[in-house]
Task: structure prediction
Amino acid sequence: MSLLTGLAPVCDSDTRLLVLGSFPGIKSLQLQQYYAHPQNQFWRILGTLWNLPLPELDYAERCRQALAHGLGIWDVYASCERTGSLDSAIRHATVNDFVGLAQRSPQLQAIAHNGGESWRHQRHTRTLGLPVYRLPSTSPANASWSFERKLQAWREVLEAHGLA
Result:
């Protein structure tokens, strides 16, 4: 099993809310795009909240829209070993440098963990002294939550920080 390296953060000095996934799936790594799997509901949820056709836009424009709305995107893991795309298969993971990212994002108000594996690392993100939220995973593996239920949970967090 080889060591996999994650994606660079999508954030800037105006990022107010940072969404942290666990680690990109196979499709995302292949395309070098966050939430690239067509069944992942991440872009659909944001598009619905912002009244934009995000799933239909190219990746660069999706990222521009996220940044324009004050949303940053990253993962808790910088690298790991994993076969397949499931979080349960992650081994020997290295956690990203959240302090360094927060220093580059002076407007950062909160962290939102996208799913349970990401949430396991809230002890690291809480050290930043910001509100930390657990959001339902947008992954197709989280089939127990309907789209509407996920949308409402995401809406509450984004609205709390002026992003929706």
User: Anything to note?
Assistant: Residues 147-160 form the longest helix (14 residues). Residues 21 and 75 are 4 Å apart (CA to CA). The first strand starts at residue 3 and ends at 5.
